[in-house]
Amino acid sequence: MNITLAQAENAIKAAKQKATAIDTKMNIAIVDAGANLVAFVRMDGAWLGSLDIAIKKAKTARYFDMNTGIIGELSQPGGSLYNIEHSNGGLITFPGGVPIKNDNDEIIGAIGVSGSSVENDHAVAEAGATSL
Amino acid sequence: MNITLAQAENAIKAAKQKATAIDTKMNIAIVDAGANLVAFVRMDGAWLGSLDIAIKKAKTARYFDMNTGIIGELSQPGGSLYNIEHSNGGLITFPGGVPIKNDNDEIIGAIGVSGSSVENDHAVAEAGATSL
Amino acid sequence: MNITLAQAENAIKAAKQKATAIDTKMNIAIVDAGANLVAFVRMDGAWLGSLDIAIKKAKTARYFDMNTGIIGELSQPGGSLYNIEHSNGGLITFPGGVPIKNDNDEIIGAIGVSGSSVENDHAVAEAGATSL
Amino acid sequence: MNITLAQAENAIKAAKQKATAIDTKMNIAIVDAGANLVAFVRMDGAWLGSLDIAIKKAKTARYFDMNTGIIGELSQPGGSLYNIEHSNGGLITFPGGVPIKNDNDEIIGAIGVSGSSVENDHAVAEAGATSL
């Protein structure tokens, strides 16, 4: 099972609405089950450096089928996954990446959001992921 | 002057309509005046390898403010720009990348399209670029 | 639809048998529908530099859903896809990469083989791809 | 002395059996004495992001001829090898990489495993490394 472009565009639409509702400007990326980019938008005025971060968050969430922030808790100094960020051409392991599931609870892709605090990034990603 | 997300989304919409009209499945990327990605879509069933090519075509068109195919004519063996593709993390210099201008004829971004023959790629990119 | 590890291992077994039958030593890689590595073997004494080439051939075949040699015919100087090899972190466009299909003729992955002449590489890849 | 493909395949078989026995889905990589990939498998449903990690663990174990977890103890903030992960195109220094020795106690390669907790990753790598 793989996310369709129509589903990805719906997720981006929902994420943009949430971003606007909380007065933020976001980069929003959607990857498919193979961790390859399906859709992306950068809202006007959003941080330029967040472009790559949004894409890496989406990939990281699909690479390990979990929210990116969970990995970040384990990759701290002394943690069991310390410096895992050096793999896969660079991971981003703070919040803002969330897997996307279909009605059968199968992971079909992931969303990554970057442009504000990690709390806001996660809230916008969650809004996108749950819009399906 | 810089392309807005709304303009980029309109260009993608026009490009998708053209792609569907000529029965192709395309990857479509829009970059801004700084050659940074603004929006991207991969149509269902489009070649996976065209993801990177569409983005590189858009960047190449903005890097040099001309259609990508023009650069490709100069980058042939013996040509004045032989193997320019080695620069900028990899250029794509065959047709499918087109600058996007505003009403004052200023370049505000570029579109890159990949997924079919280079003639089709260029036609879809042109449809997107002229939609503004 | 995605290739399973059992299918990938069968394809590698068939490819190894063909490689031995024609007295060659090969690197053999299988990627899934998302172009991510599923299985790989390097036969004893096979060229070390063919390791990366076999993986790139498999990816290239899945990226564009065709035999790699077809792309190489179009990427020559003056060809419509000249220097496409600069995309996707490096393509290999000479023969030896072949898509793998299931019984419904859907592409579920690809095989890449490197270690001898391109004719031999292709013959071994074909043996693997058709073993399913 | 260098690991043979037959030995690598035996190590992978033993590692897969252990992975199944403890109900995990693993990426398993074997490198030779030159730290170059010999064999790899990704079990169905294993994390996609663990593909690169398994290979990097195997390389790291052979690069320094020790279990990866030992290096990770020294690469912490303030440690003598702080951020050694930046070398060699990216190291992975948490458990799951183990050198492979022959009967004369000579190192002939290494195994890297990723897909579960680091304790499980190490247990599966150990099962593969000691199977020879």
TrEMBL record, chains A, B, C, D:
Annotated transmembrane regions: none
A Pfam family this chain is assigned to: HbpS-like
Source species, domain of life: Bacteria
InterPro entries xrefs: GlcG_carb_metab_protein, PduO/GlcC-like, PduO/GlcC-like_sf
Protein name: Uncharacterized conserved protein GlcG, DUF336 family
